[in-house]
Amino acid sequence: MKTFLATLAAGAALMASTAQASDLDLATPRDALTALRKVHCSTQDGQEVVYHWSGNVWSRVEGEPDRLLFRVEGMNIRQCVGVHDAQRGDGFRLVSRELMLYLDPRTGEVLRTWTNPWTGAEVSVMPVANDPVNMRPFFERDAQGRPFNPGFRLQDDRVFAASEIPLFYTNPLAGDYQDYVGNQYHAMEIFDFVAQRDALLGSDTTTAGAALAWVRIAPWLPWMKMGGRPGLMVFNAMGQTIAGVDALPEPLKSAIANDYPIYASAPPLDDARPNATSWTVARDAIDAERRAAAPRPAAASGH
After folding, report:
1. Whole-angstrom Cα distance, residue 19 to residue 17?
2. Which residues fall within 8 angstroms of residue 229, CB to CB, at 6 or more apart?
3. pTM to 2 decimals?
4. Are 114 and 59 in contact (CB under 8 A)?
5. How many CB atoms are located within 10 Å of the residue 68 CB?
6. C-beta of residue 69 within 8 angstroms of C-beta of residue 233
7. Which residue, 80, 119, 193, 245, is the most exposed by fewest CB within 10 angstroms?
8. Do 212 and 238 meet the contact criterion of CB atoms below 8 Å apart?
9. Residues 123, 111: Cα–Cα separation, whole Å
10. Tens digits of residue pLDDT in 22-75
């Protein structure tokens, strides 16, 4: 009996050792890359993953109290595909679209118009409807040959990943003289992910089921028509991956079904379009409105 129990114990220990050995090792660039892919999407090419978040948007103007301007409900649907580079090794690329609605902070209703508390003007609210929002590929090594290291932090049964993205580039809504007069687009995006260690590192999972905290510090949105008024906006939201578009809460679910049906699926894996932002979408909408309002040239009369 003792021999039989000892054999069972040895077999169980061997199985546990084998399972542990097959888990991801974050010190290995290939495994760290796989772990990041499980945070962002799935290790299976073409398997869609949906992130949902909700939160608040505040104003920050020097010399006055911060104001709660909006609530937000947002989603991003994405998928990944494996890629390879002769110098940088294996990697993956992510393609996605994202939709975010601005809500009345008191009633929770979707805002179609908004009365600007600084100017008194009523303006049309433009939801975030960015298609596509794709990432540059991640690889095992960077262009200098250094191994990939996403900076994961392990603590107890969770894994944390923080990312600060400073943005400073030519403003899509400004002219060609920004190097002389300023007005570059200047913002900061902060993404903090957390996942259960077993889900992230386990060999039997394709996605980590991660949770997300998102902070954005950025200029006034174009549709607010703030002109050169000084101040910033602070977005603060939290969310996680969910079971799919059908698991989204209202009003996002109805908005996709009725107004934004393309956001029920991710872009194709070979999508090569330039990324859209709230500012490029606003620019295109403003240009379309101006074209529609412009007087048409009179028809030439024949002689």
Report:
1. 6
2. 118, 119, 220
3. 0.87
4. no
5. 11
6. yes
7. 119
8. yes
9. 10
10. 699 999 999 999 999 999 999 999 999 999 999 999 999 999 999 999 999 999
